[in-house]
Amino acid sequence: MRSIGLAGTPPTSRSWYSRLSASVGTATALAMLVAPSVASASTTDRAQAATPTTVATAGVPAGFAPTSTSWTGPADGWVLGFAPCRAGSCPTLVSTSDGAQTWQQHTAPRVSSTPDQTKIHFANKLDGWTTDGQVLMATHDGAGTWRRVRLSGAVGSVSIAKLASTDRYAYAIVTYGVGSTKTTQLYSAPLGEDNWQPVAGVAVHGSGGWDIATHGSAAYVALGVIHTSLRMWSAADGSGWTEVEPVCSAHDAVRLSSTEPDDVEGMCSFGPERGYMHKQLVESVGGAAPVVLGYAPTTGITTGFATTSAGSTVVAGVGAGASWLHASFDNGATWETPLAIPDVQLPMLDLDFQDAAHGVVVWGGPAWSGAAVYRTTDGGHTWSQLTL
């Protein structure tokens, strides 16, 4: 275990880190590292009075395989997936407004299933975005209609990674350019608008990645290229960005979470091996230097990270014969494993908490040999598969 702060010793698996940095932990990178037996991927309110205009169709179609989920509260959630159709496999979008008791089908964005993850993110009942990594689409009427949006200045090869939002802005981590001109940058747009612009100064040179964390109006972003650079910024109002000390080192795969406007936690993962990875939990309060809180179990390559205001911390991983959720309920001092799905090793994605009790995670996806959404209603102590 690394116990000398945030500097550490550079891991040796640079090629894997390069893939993970570019894809932010997607299936393509994971398949190279978890184990030889891993399943292979195939190519197969703004205003309270506002009401979505979409016409929902009851139920979930047979054969539906979830790829991504986004929840705006304990009762309100969206799941994007793919289902059999005349064309083979078509995007399908469903939502719940009663905590997954019932589901309604909506107009789905025209996105493709990829060997990585096709993502969806909603900020509220009206504003949502989806990406297959190449294009970004938006809805501002609760999935009634979708349109492709332009990322100003993103030229050459474009890769869209993390999607996130505050109560005022939407964000995306975008890598663009060719060869030595590659840049990884934060993009932003006001909620309800499609004017996506690069955030001045919030960028790193090269093909990189990492994460965004938000709480209320506040946001944090970490951008980096593994073993080369890591920079981090915060914005109390979601738009006035100030560079801060990174919570991890340039040699780490970085995941962020925030449960208070002036508090950000990081899961700094390093030293990847076949199915294992060191995982260091850190915290920075009020812009202070990060403090190490503890170490999660090494089992599994890190694919997700989330915290709650009640002190729960959950990290997702895949490898060593299973898919894993490791959890701490005492701010990182001790750890247990509330969920392990054995035999078929699939990534656990979109791990997120809506409040201190309710959280969700996607297991696998359409490009893999299995797919499901799991949910907790007790702060991460137990997880149950949703009926979809």
Automatic annotation (TrEMBL):
Keywords: Signal. It comes from the Bacteria. Residues 1-41 form the signal peptide. This is BNR/Asp-box repeat protein. It comes from Micromonospora palomenae.
